[in-house]
Design brief:
Elements (H helix, E strand, L loop, with lengths): L1 E5 L4 H10 L4 E5 L9 H9 L5 E4 L6 H6 L1 H22 L2 E7 L22 H16 L4 E5 L2 E2 L6 H11 L3 E4 L3 E2 L2 E2 H7 L11 E4 L6 E2 H14 L9 E4 L20 H7 L6 H12 L4
Helix pairs in contact: 1-7, 2-4, 4-5, 6-8, 8-10
């Protein structure tokens, strides 16, 4: 099976490349090799490439910048996926396109399921939702995978920033009233091949590690793990910030965007591991050696 991964230089794309290079015939395309704002380049590159599965792990992901660069956000997050989906359809290939928990408004107070109404409250969320619709309308076997709070070793994420700040400062703080679920790139890479075959059900799929937490809880667990694994840090506890106090943010964020993975479990018979276990595994593997 030949797989093309768009966004191979990003956090998720890098993880997929690392996990799949020994299992599949994989071609990775980073931003320098494929600019998603250049539609002629997309067509030229992908039409000349043979593949069975295309994974689009790229996007315009700067949530605040999307507010001031709306056209660019929709170009990359909505229009480019439509063209990619059409190319995949015409080649008889399957597209697995990654989306975000930010397609929801955060008003719900229990985990979002795939059939819940998407009502984004930011330009980023709007552009990701438009991209989902473009992909799903093009071919019914294409898959849109929504993920949340993605972390992994290839690009710094929230958890890495927390650990760095805790190693440099006596005090750290994180938002205590915004809730979702961390999702480990390693676990995403492990779940994805179940959906590679063209005849496997498409549509929308939520995948996140099990449970839910605030950023404050997430950060505190990261520091607890560091202490447990003997990783030095000056700060031991994480103070609480309020979502409403983030005055430097331009875009609105959903206060609650936990994704239910019940459909994934129903389809596969497998359950994602708890977010605490995934975070501990990541810190043990990539920090305790340093």
């Amino acid at each position: 099976m030949k797989i093309v991964i768009i966004g191979a230089g990003g956090r998720l794309g890098s993880a997929l490349m690392r996990e799949y290079r020994d299992r599949f015939d994989v071609v990775g395309l980073n931003h320098a090799q494929l600019d998603l704002s250049n539609f002629d380049e997309i067509r030229e590159t992908l039409c000349a490439t043979n593949f069975d599965v295309l994974v689009n792990a790229a996007g315009f992901t700067n949530v605040d910048l999307c507010e001031t660069e709306r056209d660019q956000a929709f170009l990359i997050n909505a229009e480019a996926p439509r063209i990619i989906a059409e190319i995949c359809r015409d080649k008889g290939a399957k597209l697995l396109h990654f989306s975000s928990d930010y397609v929801f408004d955060g008003e719900k107070r229990e985990p979002y399921v795939e059939s819940d109404f998407a009502n984004p409250i930011s330009v980023y969320g709007e552009s990701k939702r438009a991209g989902e619709q473009s992909v799903l309308q093009t071919a019914d076997r294409h898959l849109v995978a929504r993920v949340s709070w993605v972390f992994g070793p290839d690009r710094p994420s929230f958890i890495d920033g927390v650990i760095q700040r805790a190693q440099e400062n006596e005090e750290v703080a994180a938002i205590g009233d915004k809730f979702s679920t961390p999702t480990y790139t390693h676990d995403i890479a492990q779940m994805l091949p179940r959906f590679f075959e063209l005849n496997v059900e498409g549509g929308v799929l939520h995948f996140a590690n099990a449970g839910e937490c605030s950023w404050q809880e997430y950060a505190q667990w990261a520091l607890d793990c560091c202490q447990g694994f003997g990783i030095s840090a000056k700060a031991k506890t994480v103070g609480a910030l309020k979502l409403k106090d983030m005055k430097n943010w331009v875009a609105r964020r959903p206060a609650y965007s936990v994704l239910s993975s019940a459909k994934y479990t129903q389809l596969t018979g497998a359950s994602p591991r708890a977010w605490r276990d995934a975070v501990a595994d990541y810190i043990r593997r990539f920090y305790s050696k340093t």
